[in-house]
Amino acid sequence: MVRRAAVRTLPGLLVLILALTPAAHAMDFSAAVREAQASNPGLQAANYAYQAGMEKGRQGTALFFPQITATGNYNYMHSNTVATLPFGFSQPLLSGDTSGYIQGYSVTLVQPIYNATVWSGAAQLKDQSKLSAIQYGGAQQNLILQVAQAYFGVLMAQDSLQLTREQKAAVHEQLASAQARFRVGKTNITDVDEAQARYDAILAQELNAQNNLAVQEAQFASVVGKPPGNLAKVPDTFKPHSLEPDDLQHWIDQGLKGNPSVQGARVQVDMSREEIDQYKLTSRPQLDMFASYSDMRGSGFLPILQEPGYSKQTMVGVQLSVPLFAGGAYNSKLREALADNQQAQYQLQATIASTSVQIKQQYLNIQVGVPQIAALQQAVVAAKSSLDANILGEKVGVRNLTDVLNAQQQYYSTLQNLDAARYQYLLSTLNLSALVGTLSMQDVRAVNGYLAKSGD
């Protein structure tokens, strides 16, 4: 389809030079995503949060294993003993001053046999690990969306600036023509003023477009870690495809299973239930297996009754603990856990409702985008024909300058609407994949395939 050929031409030599000159910092969508994945600080932070979360699962497993403790000591002991006789005897029965060293070690093993709070705590830790994995997956998908927003934001800003400059050149041509005809008396000052007003408005739009492009480029650099340079663009031959399957309920069902926010909300409900169990089970007895071994040795001149020269002790058994009263703290924590569980359940319902609406929105954006883009492509052809007809009509006197300026504005406005519809379609496909939890580099490569056709 012819888009801007009648408005923008380049000499053949310049085209050849540009074709032979390598583009500085050329980058496509896939490359932008890879750059962001390697350097984006938000994703790096999410990665370390994920690694920390994985340790929670290992900590939960560790609660099932025995706890072994070893202690050692080395002490100096000085004893001064005086044993007196009953009242009436002035001389002590026994007196002595001794000193020496005591050294030894002990090893203790405690293996939980039945401890309901330990099992509940282990389940919570494992759920925290699961939640970290879900959140990291969501962070990876969110980064792709951030790159897409920044990437297509730059392209949209570039196209807007380019179209504004093309429109400025066209309006300037009409202004110069109106001024020339006014000087020879072939038109009135109203046409000149109209063209001048349109030209001044276009100058303001150009400044706004330049500022917007600068902001979009800065946003791109903050997400990707590099300036955009020469980005691969969406070609004029772009043709969108309808969703497969074309069934809204299918996508909603997929989202309620795979959406990271919904998955995370479900894990939060599980964790709140385990918190309830932990405080409900606090009053239950706890049974542990206990085993210990100790080895003590003395040296010097310590009395044998105070400290034998050598002692070994081995102990194996079970220990039963029954919580009786803790000042009401556990009852309060149980009520707190019950309230947290209710909050988590309602939060899950809200997340499901919000996700369903978002999926429907992106689904409709895609389904409407397919015919909308086709309609806008035809509208561009029609607007260009109308512009050409008005230019010709002005030359033969059946159209005036205002008609030409209005036709020009309609043509460029339609071009901008077509650009926006294309970018919105691509963004909606990525957003829908993220909402159902399947957004990956495969989707990135699929979108990049559209861009790669720009040179065809």
Can you offer a commentary on this structure?
Mean pLDDT is 87; it is low at 1-23. The chain has a single domain (40-76, 106-455), classed as Outer membrane efflux proteins (OEP). The protein has helices at residues 12-20, 29-39, 41-62, 116-183, 189-224, 248-258, 260-280, 329-396, 401-435, 441-452, and strands spanning 67-83, 94-114, 286-300, 310-321. The protein has a four-stranded antiparallel β-sheet, with no helix packed on it. The protein contains ten helices and four strands. With 456 residues, it is of the alpha+beta class. It is 64% helix and 14% strand. The protein is elongated and about 145 Å long.
Concise description?
This protein is an alpha+beta fold and 456 residues long. 64% of the residues lie in helices and 14% in strands.
Compile the SSE list and pairings.
Layout: H1 12-20, H2 29-39, H3 41-62, E1 67-83, E2 94-114, H4 116-183, H5 189-224, H6 248-258, H7 260-280, E3 286-300, E4 310-321, H8 329-396, H9 401-435, H10 441-452
Antiparallel strand pairs: 1-2, 2-3, 3-4
SSE arrangement, N to C: HHHEEHHHHEEHHH
- Sheet of most strands: 4 strands, antiparallel
- Can you count the helices? 10
What is the level 1 CATH name? Mainly Alpha
Question: What value does the average pLDDT take?
Answer: 87
Helix content: 55-70%
Strand content: 5-15%
Which value, in Å, is the CA radius of gyration? 40 Å
Tell me the structural class: alpha+beta
